[in-house]
Each structure stands twice: as C-alpha cells, then as structure tokens.
Amino acid sequence: MTEQKSVMIGMSGGVDSSVAAALLKEQGYRVIGVTMRLWTYSDDNPNHEGCCSESAVEDARRVCDKLDIDFYVLNFKDIFKREVVDYFVDEYKRGRTPNPCIMCNKKLKFGEMLRRAKAMDIDYIATGHYAVIEKDENGKYRLRMSRAAKKDQSYVLYNFTQEQLAHTLMPLGAYTKDEVRSLAEKYGLAVANKPDSQEICFVEDGKYADFITDYGNYTPKEGDILDIDGNVIGTHRGLIHYTIGQRKGIGAYGRPMFIMKIDPQTNTITLGEKGMEFSKSLIAEDVNFISGEAPTEPIRVQVKVRYQAKPAPATLFAENDRVRIDFDEPQRAVTPGQAAVFYDGDIVLGGGTVIEKQD
Known about the structure:
Oligomer: single chain
Largest sheet: 6 strands, antiparallel, barrel
CATH topology of the largest domain: Rossmann fold
Number of helices: 7
Distance between the termini: 62 Å
C-alpha cells in the first residue's frame, strides 16, 4: 500500500488557495491548511480585508471545515515585519520601487513555511499560485508559466531553488481563473465569488506614501525637479511619492513629461519627454537561477521588467552575482527596485532586482 503523502497549504481565505486545497485532497494527499498571520491591521480600519485579516482567517477556517481538513494559524509577524515591511519602506526611501510580494514569497511562503512543514514531517507545501512545477529530462525541477496567461504568476516566483521546488506543489497551473471559480462552486465553497485581492496586503487603501510616513515616523523632504539637462523646473513632495515612468502628479509643463530618474543622493527627480522613458539595457543583482547554475556564455532570453509586461527578447550576460540585460528593443519604465525575470519560452530561468538602467 502506497503511503499517503502530506501537504501544508498556505490559505489566504481566497478562492485560489481554497480550490488548491480541495484539488490536493481529491488527489489523495493529507492536507493541512494554514493561514500565515503576517500583520496586524489598525483599529481605525477594522473591516480591512487583506490576506491575513480576521475576515480572511475566518474564510480560510470555514473552507477547511467544509473540506474536513485540519487548519492552523501560524504567527509569522516578526519575520514578515523584518524581511518584507522593513525592506519595502527602506527601498522607497532609497528612491527605488520594491515588489514586496516577491520578497514575501522568498522569505515567508517558500522559506519559513517550508521550514515549518519540514519540522512537522510534512512532505510538501502548496499555494494557490498560477504556475507549473515539473521535472525536465535531466531530472531537474523547473518552473513554467501557467496555462492561464492573464493570471500567470511566475514573475513573482523566480527565487525558487531546486530544493524548494522538490517540496512544493502548485495544483492550479493547469486551470484558468474561470475554471477555478467553477470548481469552487462544485466543491460548495462559500468563497467561489470572492473578489481577488489587488493591493499590497499591509498597505491599507493603497496609500503607500502614507504608510511609509506613518510606519517609520518618516518625513519626506522636498527637493528639486530637473529637466534632462539638469535645469531646475519644479519642486517635488518627497521621493517616496514617485516612481520611474510616472506621468501624473508631477506638475504641468505644457507637454507630456515622465520621470526618468530618482536620485536619493541629491534628492532630485529628473523628467524627460515622451519616448525618453525607454531603456535599452539594465543591470540586476541578487540574481537567482532556478537551475542553480548561471550561464557561462551570453544567452538569448525573454525578459519581463514588470508583472504585467510582455516578455521582451534580449541577451543576458551573467557577471559574477549580477546580470546585464541588453534588449533587442528599448523597454519602457525599467525601474530600480523592481524585478527583471528571464524566460526561455514559458520556462522561468531566474531573475534579479534591477539596480541600474541604461537609456
């Protein structure tokens, strides 16, 4: 008789992780649902419905009751504050635009949760991400884009190691969002029509600058707005209010202008006219290659510089712990702090954090 394998699945209280749990149970796994307690929301917004709010925890608990699987709440507040929230705030203060979901996946979901599962002798962890994990012909694990192109989440998953992939399940990779909602109705899950969460979970109402100001008792400093020739043409409200490629909220100049550069050393932002916000090359650090091996020669890849961006053809040069990406065609709003993720077709090769762009 084959031994039943066990899996700990992270449950946000949403439809995706709920259906993933149901599919895993249907496939014969012993499923343990967990919600990671990451953040405490302020008393002045008790109805906030972020992924670790009270309402989300109760939704996850009800789903586990419906599926007749165990449910636990894991307290990861300290590590979340240290590794995700502090990182988010510090990056904005440095004039960069971070992606906290990528850091949360790296440090919490596929880091701390996996360690907790191993300590409990649980075979796998799982999430409701839209991506595919498989083995190649050489026995190495690889990550592929989801069948649901509009929901594909491979961009935020590039930090996987071979060890993590060997112990991770993603049952939604073969489904579209509509199919997932239909499955939720089939399983009788109350969250079948629950809206997707769109914002960063710990930032209420999407007000990033307000959060950074309040969280660190931080006062943004006004500074100069420069044109491409270095002339002062205005005053900004503080670097945390801006990001590369931004057009709105920077003042009126008689023609469309875009943020080209944010410089924390001089506390300035530089504007350029339409067309100048494109970059032909970038440098990324903190690079991870999912295979565990960086290429020794330049390779052809497709690169996404934003979650919703189309993969752009490019050549990748690995240089120690960095990569240089030279695009075939200049890309819009390449932004320091964001991720550059490289693909071979629908296979995720890896990614890194953009630290420099070349126009």
